[in-house]
Amino acid sequence: MDESPTVLGVPQNTEALLCYLFGFVSGFIFLIVEKENKFVRFHAMQSLVTFLGLFVLSIICHFVPVFGTIIGLALVPLQVILWAVMMFKSYSGELYKLPVFGDFAVSQLEAR
Fold first, then answer.
1. First vs last Cα of the chain: how many Å apart?
2. How many structural domains does the chain have?
3. Which class for 59: exposed (0-12), middle (13-18), buried (19 or more C-beta within 10 A)?
4. Which of 1, 3, 20, 65 could link 93 by a cystine bridge, Cβ 3.0 to 4.6 Å?
5. What confidence tens digit (pLDDT) does each residue in 60-103 have?
6. How many CA atoms are closer than 13 Å to the CA of 94, on its beta-carbon side?
7. Is residue 100 part of a domain?
8. Contact predicate 24/48, CB 8 Å
9. Closest by CA position to 49, among listed 107, 109, 102
10. Position 71 in a domain
């Protein structure tokens, strides 16, 4: 694992974990603040697109009667499990890409 310096001066795996701590909000903050460390920037972008997408989807589900409510309720445990797994993977130093969101995060970072 490359130990590039981070903006907070903490190990990069700790800063990557913090990218997921408050979902898309912390991902957005670290994407703005962290300019150099690619490991942290990847996790920040993946956190932003994953949890913002799930947040928007859960809001949309509340406007769809019955079926939307069921889907919205099913998203809650999915989000909690995904949040815990991604925090664990990032703290372990793993550059784990989620199937759709991870590829999108990489493409957005490469475009900059």
1. 23
2. 1
3. exposed
4. 1
5. 998 988 899 899 999 999 999 999 999 999 999 999 999 999 99
6. 10
7. no
8. yes
9. 102
10. yes
